[in-house]
Design a protein that fits this description.
There is one protein chain. It is built from seven helices and eleven strands. With 215 residues, it is an alpha/beta fold. The chain has a domain of 147 residues: Class I glutamine amidotransferase (GATase) domain (Rossmann fold). A four-stranded parallel sheet has the order 2-1-3-4. Strands 7-8-11 form a three-stranded mixed sheet, covered by helices on one side. A two-stranded antiparallel sheet has the order 5-6.
Length: 215
């Protein structure tokens, strides 16, 4: 749900290459708006009142990038801003809704060119969006055949065994992963996946499990 422990925070420091207090970031709340409570979720994310630290980490500067607004904005007014920041903080919600707006806004087209310039910090749906698959269903919607951004070659089952999310029990995440055509990491909120130049490292003070791809 954010930078929830020292191990994940240290991994972020390593990716940034300098203290957070010297870095700038943009937060992307778009994924939240799929749900009726989306505005409240977005507010908690931006204001630093969410379940895990993200925007409140002490960034040198912090701005909001709303993907649904970008089609009405000249590209030269927002693309340079994205290229200039050190980190993109992508909040949770619905991953398919987020992917759709990443594509419609032109943000998805830009992302691959930012890999060596900007650290992508995804939370929940924000992390799932860059994977290739959301399984056969997600958030009670059919997602079989839907293609995520595929910036990484694995899928994610998030909030593993979260006490307030019964659909994220180990058994249910395993059943969901059985419908995913690539390997899937089931991760709890004390776990993150660090990817640099295609090399994957699990950062965890909680628990996680790797599931094989769909046969």
């Amino acid at each position: 749900m954010g930078i929830t422990n020292a191990s994940i925070q240290n991994a972020l420091f390593e990716l940034l290459g300098r203290p957070i207090a010297e870095c700038s970031a943009l937060v992307i709340p778009t994924a939240a708006y799929y749900f009726s409570q989306g505005p409240a979720i977005a507010y908690r994310l931006i204001s630093g009142k969410g379940p895990g630290p993200l925007c409140e980490l002490g960034w040198k500067s912090l701005g909001v990038l709303e993907l649904t607004a970008l089609p009405s904005v000249d590209r030269e007014n927002w693309i340079p801003l994205v290229r200039e920041v050190d980190a993109l903080l992508v909040g949770g919600g619905d991953p398919m809704y987020l992917c759709d707006w990443m594509r419609q806004s032109g943000f998805a087209e830009l992302l691959p060119s930012l890999r060596r310039e900007v650290v992508y910090v995804g939370v929940s749906a924000g992390s799932m969006a860059v994977t290739p698959s959301f399984g056969e269903t997600y958030n009670d919607r059919p997602t079989a055949g839907y293609r995520g951004l595929a910036l990484v070659d694995f899928a994610l089952g998030v909030h593993l065994d979260h006490p307030s999310m019964p659909d994220n029990s180990l058994a249910k995440v395993e059943a969901w992963a059985a419908g995913v055509p690539v390997r899937t990491y089931g991760i709890d909120d004390e776990t993150a996946i660090k990817v640099v130049d295609g090399k994957v490292k699990v950062i965890s003070e909680g628990h996680w499990k790797l599931f094989p791809p769909k046969r």
